[in-house]
From TrEMBL, chain A:
The chain crosses the membrane at residues 20-40, 60-83, 110-134, 154-172, 179-198, 250-272. PANTHER family: INTEGRAL MEMBRANE PROTEIN-RELATED, MEMBRANE PROTEIN. It holds the Pfam family ABC2_membrane_2. The keyword Transmembrane helix applies. This is ABC transporter permease subunit. Keywords: Membrane, Transmembrane, Transmembrane helix. The keyword rRNA-binding does not apply.
Automatic annotation (TrEMBL), chain B:
InterPro entries: AAA+_ATPase (IPR003593), ABC_transporter-like_ATP-bd (IPR003439), ABC_transporter-like_CS (IPR017871), P-loop_NTPase (IPR027417). This is ABC transporter ATP-binding protein. PANTHER family: ABC TRANSPORTER, ATP-BINDING PROTEIN. Belongs to the ABC transporter superfamily. Keywords: ATP-binding, Nucleotide-binding, Transport. It comes from the Bacteria.
Length: 277, 298
């Protein structure tokens, strides 16, 4: 296993573009701390974002995992190109001839994806912990370590998304087209949802179906955290809108994403096995 | 003899096209094999199948008496297919390190192999800066990293300039002299003739011949003769039971033997009959002539 990871590491780390993207990604993850510095001083209105409770435990787990997940596109580019470059350089053929089995080849890619997700999760955990300890209004142990399910949700979300990228890389074999396909798929899911709700079934039912779409199920794992902010809640109450909504992570949401991950990895393997190189 | 590779009734179809048709052969340790065949005769497909990058339609192959899986066997094989494929953004050392990791061998051999192919001085240049000849030599170095039991080369001199071709051939000869089994696919007959002891001839995916180069055709060779009195020479030869077809080409007679005869006894016999020769050569058909005869007959 270590050998497979080392193989992938040599390939990635010696590629300048990948290296730059990976480093930028982790710098960006850390830079979420900069939000703390957002301050407006407009005459009597003094607004300090860090004071608005976004860094309060346990809310910070939700907020940070949601925001940092947006940066995953950087790694998506790396993952799509690490797969499709093997095709365009024909190095996949050489790898197999040199004695890597197709299974090992896929395993090395999947292990890399899992490592990326794992390191990201650790990063988010550490950064959030530091930010929280610095700015949170509540510092009791029991509060700090509540709502931690957002971290595994973050991890599974990344693994699922990256597996999808991996699969697209193998399917399309060209990184630019694979990324285009990713965007196309995002739109496609929304269009199908729209069509379902408009023509086929009720909007309620369409929403239920939508939760099973691959990308939708991944974004559904961590719902948007903004309406949970007390400031936003207050505004909502003032205008008479009840903004209470369910932000929890449920086991079946994990389950759906894990199933998709398994499907994408299996399809990647099946595709590689079937193809003549 | 230790068997390295056995191929049994191998068939590969691409849609309606049959690239390899019921192909069988074996590779024994210590020989240098050539797979010969015109373009599109299934050479690369066959190599692709035994190297696990092309899926077979039917048939079987086994490495090293079938005691290991293909995956493990490939770690004891060194192979280059068509074009050298490496990571363009990495230098020679980095690329070879990666190959060492894949083959699960220590990195100690990198310098030795790069020196063997004359690339040690350029070890820190990126692969994409190499010329085609250098890329090809780098591929050979990479294939040799695990000191393979068998080296498989697919058209190693394709697209190279004469100097590059010469370098590659010298390297192949050096490796062959060290006792490594070599399987060389090529459509260049003189290349195969120069380095191979055994040949497998393919045409349209079918095996026309496999065996030693010498016994490819059941022929005893032929004489090229010149003399002042060609007509008399010709009548004499036609009378002899040892000769079959006799051709006159630009004042040189080519007489094909039906039975074994050496040049000395022919010379003696002719001299006794009063004919002096100005030119006498005994030759075997070149591989090219044999190859054309073989492929034409089918």
């Amino acid at each position: 296993m270590l050998r497979l990871l080392q193989i992938e590491f040599i390939k990635l780390w010696n590629n300048r573009a990948s290296k730059v993207l990976i480093i930028s990604y982790f710098v960006l993850l850390t830079s979420i701390a900069l939000i703390a510095a957002i301050k407006f001083d407009i005459g009597p209105v003094e607004f300090h974002l860090a004071d608005q409770g976004i860094f309060n435990f346990p809310y910070i787990w939700h907020f940070n995992t949601f925001v940092t997940a947006l940066f995953k596109l950087f790694l998506a580019i790396v993952i799509v190109s690490m797969m499709s470059n093997e095709y365009s350089n024909k190095t996949i053929k050489q790898n197999l001839i040199d004695g890597l089995s197709k299974k090992e080849f896929i395993t090395s890619k999947v292990l890399t994806v899992i490592s990326f997700a794992l390191i990201s999760t650790l990063f988010v955990f550490v950064v959030s912990m530091i930010l929280g300890l610095a700015y949170s209004d509540y510092n009791e142990m029991s509060i700090i370590f509540s709502d931690l399910e957002f971290l595994p949700a973050f991890f599974i979300k990344l693994v699922g998304f990256f597996s999808f990228c991996l699969f697209l890389g193998i399917l399309v074999k060209r990184s630019a087209f694979a990324l285009g396909f990713l965007i196309l798929w995002t739109i496609f899911e929304q269009v199908v949802f729209g069509l379902l709700g408009w023509k086929v079934m009720s909007w309620e039912a369409a929403k239920a179906v939508k939760r099973f779409f691959p990308l939708e199920s991944m974004s559904n794992l961590i719902k948007e955290p903004f309406t949970r902010l007390s400031a936003v809640q207050n505004i909502g109450q003032q205008i008479g809108e009840d903004m209470k909504f369910d932000y929890h992570v449920y086991w079946y949401e994990f389950f759906i994403v894990i199933i998709w991950t398994a499907i994408f990895i299996y399809l990647s393997y099946a595709l590689l096995k079937k193809r003549d190189l | 003899m230790e068997t390295i590779l056995t191929v049994n009734h191998l068939t590969k179809k691409f849609g309606y096209l049959t690239a390899v048709n019921d192909l069988s052969f074996t590779i024994e340790k210590g020989n240098v094999y050539g797979i010969l065949g015109p373009n599109g005769s299934g050479k690369s497909t066959t190599l692709g199948i035994i190297l696990n990058v092309v899926n077979r339609t039917s048939g079987e192959f086994s490495w090293f008496d079938g005691s290991t899986t293909t995956h493990d066997a490939l770690k004891k094989v060194g192979a280059i297919i068509e074009r050298p494929n490496f990571y363009p953004y990495m230098n020679a050392i980095q690329n070879l390190r990666l190959v060492c990791k894949i083959k699960d061998v220590p990195e100690t051999k990198i310098q030795e192999k790069l020196e063997l192919v004359g690339l040690w001085d350029r070890r820190n240049s990126k692969f994409k800066t190499y010329s085609l000849g250098m890329k090809q030599r780098m591929a050979i170095a990479s294939a040799l990293l695990n000191d393979p039991e068998i080296l498989i080369l697919d058209e190693p001199t394709n697209g190279l300039d004469p100097q590059g071709i010469h370098q590659i051939r010298e390297i192949i000869k050096t490796i062959a002299n060290q006792g490594t089994t070599i399987l060389l696919a090529s459509h260049l007959l003189d290349e195969v003739e120069k380095v191979c002891s055994h040949v497998i001839i393919l045409r349209k995916g079918e095996n026309l011949y496999s065996g030693p180069v010498d016994s490819m055709l059941a022929s005893h060779g032929f004489f090229e003769l010149r003399s002042t009195d060609l007509d008399q020479l010709r009548t004499l030869l036609e009378k002899s039971a040892s000769f079959g077809k006799i051709e006159n080409f630009n004042g040189t007679l080519t007489a094909y033997l039906k039975e074994e005869m050496d040049a000395e006894s022919l010379n003696k016999m002719l001299f006794e009959k009063g004919i002096t020769l100005s030119h006498l050569v005994k030759r075997k058909e070149s591989l090219e002539e044999q190859f054309l005869t073989l492929t034409k007959n089918q």
